[in-house]
Amino acid sequence: MRPVTALRTKPATAASAPEAAPAIEEAGGERLSKRVAALVPCSRTEAEQYIEGGWVRVDGKVVEEPQFRVRHQTIAIDPHASLLAQPPVTLLLHKPADWVD
Asked: Which residues of the chain have pLDDT under 70?
């Protein structure tokens, strides 16, 4: 059995973790879903639904990717944005008798 010579402590890298956060933000910016969740009081999941539904514009262009990185761009959410499910629809197709799929 080996004698215990020193107490183990957490590595010094754990203390420097808060300093690493600004470097990540500078490198790629902030996720669009996080920014939308801050603009509209909602969860990130709901923010992703707004983005995927095409309700969010970044500098005037529709972005449908929640992982899109933004920094200082202008983010606009359509005032008519809604997360309510669309009612079901029935589509009727009239095709000629000799039509082959």
From this structure: 1-27
